[in-house]
Specification:
Layout lengths: L3 E5 L4 E6 L10 H16 L4 E6 L10 H5 L3 H24 L4 E5 L2 E3 L1 H8 L2 E5 L3 E3 L13 H9 L1 H10 L3 E2 H6 L5 E3 L4 H13 L3 H14 L4 H17 L1 H11 L13
Parallel strand pairs: 2-3, 3-4, 4-6, 5-7, 6-9
Antiparallel strand pairs: 1-2, 7-8
Helix pairs in contact: 1-3, 4-5, 5-6, 9-10
């Protein structure tokens, strides 16, 4: 069985599923490379939205420690570089897409699993989900962008609390501190994630991409440079086919039909 399954439907919705449910979807080399293949498939395809899920009872428990424990010394060092290189490139490719990403997380979300959840634009958590940084508990430091994304989501002080103490964060607290977008009953997670991804699939993908890049750049840019970037992005969006369709639909008092506009 493949570690990561990618399905892109005719409407441009990509469903990316971590398939090692029996192992808590732990990330070893095969899974990391599978995520990179999935990201590249989305990059090549006419994808309008991405839905990331994990099979089984846990979304992702982090790195595959059983795989890592079979190695030591230089061999372990090289192996972890290979794993993180693939995983990190996958995250970069997903981040560069115009298509927004929705993640549906359940059960245990730990280590790199938090990085995957944080990489999504909209992260839905089952009310039974729980988050644990876990890295320093085994003498590791973070990967999967966690040392960057977690402080941005919850603030540096709280991020250090989570990273150093490895305390368990239930879903309700995760939503309260900004780690996830919202919490839904576990029985409704799959349906709500599909509805959310489908709504985004029908949206203005080009404008979504510009918005994603503006939000990412705005975390570090100075005000004048960011306002200039906003102005240029807005002008480009307004002049695009999506922008013209959006305004025409508004003035015509109808729903916009963004999916009829071909993707580049």
């Amino acid at each position: 069985m493949t570690a990561v399954r990618t399905e892109i439907d005719a409407g441009g919705l990509a469903r990316v599923t971590l398939c090692r449910g029996e192992a808590g979807n732990a990330i070893g080399l095969e899974t990391a490379r599978g995520l990179l293949d999935a990201a590249r498939a989305c990059e090549r395809g006419a994808v309008r939205a991405v839905l990331l899920t994990g099979a089984g009872t846990a979304f992702c428990v982090g790195g595959d420690l059983r795989e890592f424990a079979r190695l030591e010394g230089e061999a372990l060092h090289k192996h972890l570089i290979a794993v993180t290189d693939a995983l990190h490139e996958a995250l970069c490719v997903f981040a560069a897409l115009d298509a927004p990403m929705v993640a549906a997380v359940q059960g245990a979300v730990a280590g790199a699993g938090i990085g995957l959840a944080a990489a999504a634009d909209v992260t839905l958590a089952a009310d039974t989900a729980a988050f644990t940084a876990a890295y320093t508990g085994i003498g590791y430091s973070p990967d999967a962008g966690v040392s960057r994304s977690l402080p941005r989501l919850v603030g540096p002080k709280r991020a250090l609390d989570l990273l150093l103490t490895n305390r368990r964060v239930p879903a309700a607290e995760a939503a309260a501190i900004g780690l996830v977008s919202r919490v839904v009953p576990a029985a409704e997670l799959s349906d709500e994630a599909e509805r959310t991804a489908e709504a985004l699939r029908r949206g203005p993908t080009g404008a979504f991409g510009a918005t994603r890049r503006l939000v990412a750049a705005g975390q570090s840019a100075d005000l004048a440079a960011h306002l200039d970037r906003e102005a240029r992005a807005l002008a480009a969006a307004a002049a695009s086919d999506e922008g013209r369709e959006g305004v025409a639909a508004f003035l015509g008092k109808r729903a916009p039909e963004f999916t009829r506009i071909p993707r580049a």
